[in-house]
Specification:
Helix content is about 20%, strand content about 20%. By secondary structure, the protein is α+β, with helices and mostly antiparallel strands. Strands 1-2 form a two-stranded antiparallel sheet.
Length: about 60
């Protein structure tokens, strides 16, 4: 399970008014399993991961005819 920083901060802000619904066993549509977790920031043990992203872009200067 993965939260973005924004999602985790919103969950912390809304506390008991924030619900996480985890759907499992999705390979068997007739037997889906739903787990509802209220206030997940208090109930889940998490590990924070920080990644550095490198962005590459390509610029085409204006074409002269």
């Amino acid at each position: 399970m993965l939260f973005t920083d924004k999602e985790w901060n919103i969950a912390r802000q809304f506390k008991e008014n924030y619900y996480l619904v985890v759907v499992s066993n999705v390979a068997d549509e007739r037997n889906l399993i739903f787990n509802i977790i209220d206030n997940p920031t208090e109930k889940l043990s998490v590990k924070k991961n920080v990644y550095t992203t490198v962005q590459v872009n390509w610029n085409v200067p204006s074409l002269r005819r």
